[in-house]
Amino acid sequence: MTDIEVQDIGDKVVTVLKTIYDPEIPVDIYELGLIYDVFVNDNCEVKILMTLTSPNCPVAETLPVEVEEKVKTLEEVKDAEVEITFDPTWTQDMMSEEARLELGFL
């Protein structure tokens, strides 16, 4: 698999991530800064390193599953796994400028 093909899959994964919203905040999880990294290997397997707005987040059980399931709908993706981390801890500074503008922080 070429670097271009891996990049293409990564871009498609990001597009999918931008369709998933935190139920308490009207911004997608990518712009919210909850996605720390997206890895795609040569076998078309995706690993997503993400966090939650807090360890006590009400969607802690369901959001990672939703992310995995939606990423797996991409025909190029053979498998997807989400790893949750709280290091570093999420802060509002991790939001994109677009997200801050939408939430009235700018």
UniProtKB/TrEMBL annotation:
Domain MIP18 family-like, first and last residues per copy: 11-84
Superkingdom of the organism of origin: Bacteria
Organism per entry: Aureibaculum flavum
InterPro entries in alphabetical order: Fe-S_Maturation_MIP18, FSCA_dom_sf, MIP18-like
Name of the protein in its database record: DUF59 domain-containing protein
Membrane-spanning intervals of the chain: none
